[in-house]
Amino acid sequence: MSKLREQRIEMLKEMAEKTGGMITTSRIEKAGISRVLIPTFIDEGILVKEARGIYYYADEFPDDLQIIQANNPRVVYSYGTALYLWDMSDRTPHVWDVSVPQGFNATRLKKDNKNIRLHYINADKWSVGITEALTPDGNKVRLYDKERCIIDLIKKKDKIDKQLY
Predict the structure, then answer these.
(1) In this structure, are residues 51 and 67 in contact, taking their beta carbons and an 8 Å threshold?
(2) Domain with 26 in it
(3) Same domain, 106 and 42
(4) Strand 96-101 vs strand 116-121: parallel, antiparallel, or unpaired?
(5) End-to-end CA distance of the chain, in Å?
(6) Fewest CB within 10 A of the end CB: N or C in the chain?
(7) Which of 123, 120, 83, 122 is nearest to 100 (CA)?
(8) CA 59, CA 47: separation in Å to the nearest integer?
(9) Running along the chain, 165 residues long, what does each successive block of 10 average in pLDDT?
(10) Nearest Cα to 95, choosing from 65, 51, 59?
């Protein structure tokens, strides 16, 4: 194996360690590695493709919550999913609740992720209460703060699963 190749693989490994295993095409290119080499890394079992432009280092396990937000920076976890991430619910969601601003084109998001429930929020209220927390796998994601979650649940009481109450 050439020294340059070893350096590239080491760079990928270091990137993965900093991000819970996930590496994006843009990060690979910023590190000076050509995107043309990505299929080779996949074929050799160094990287595993999880979604468009998102890869995991082969030794790492993918984090669905991290992957959804990596391709959709305007996605914020809300409702039951946020309660779960805040450890305010003992139920692991079978569908991820995500909120996006009104007018957001969610075509690709819905196509790529069958296990999400979309909530459209007025654009002027969408950003209120956004913060970060860790997934069970230890990766940072954006979600609504605890207060916003409780307010949203009360406002949508009739549409929310009764077991969350």
Answers:
(1) yes
(2) 3-57
(3) no
(4) parallel
(5) 58
(6) N
(7) 120
(8) 9
(9) 86 89 93 93 93 89 91 93 93 93 93 92 96 94 96 81 57
(10) 65
Taking each continuous run of H as one helix and of E as one strand, the counts in the chain are 8, 8
pLDDT of the residue at 164:
53
Q: Are residues 53 and 71 in the same domain?
A: no
Instruction: Kindly state whether residues 117 and 150 are assigned to the same domain.
Output: yes
Label each residue of 10-21 as H, E or C: HHHHHHHHHCCC
Q: Are strands 47-51 and 116-121 parallel, antiparallel or unpaired?
A: unpaired
Alpha-carbon gap, residue 79 to 23, rounded angstroms: 28
- Looking at the DSSP assignment, which residues form a beta bridge with residue 7? none
- Coil vs helix vs strand at 128: coil
Nearest residue to 142 (alpha-carbon basis) of 65, 51, 87, 64: 65
- Which residues make Cβ contacts (< 8 Å) with residue 1, sequence separation at least 6? none
* 79's tokens: 């409702």
Q: What is the pLDDT of residue 117?
A: 94
Question: What region does 111 belong to: left with phi over 0, alpha with psi -120 to 50, or beta?
Answer: alpha
C-alpha distances in angstroms, 50 versus 14, 54, 91, 92, 98? 19, 6, 25, 22, 19
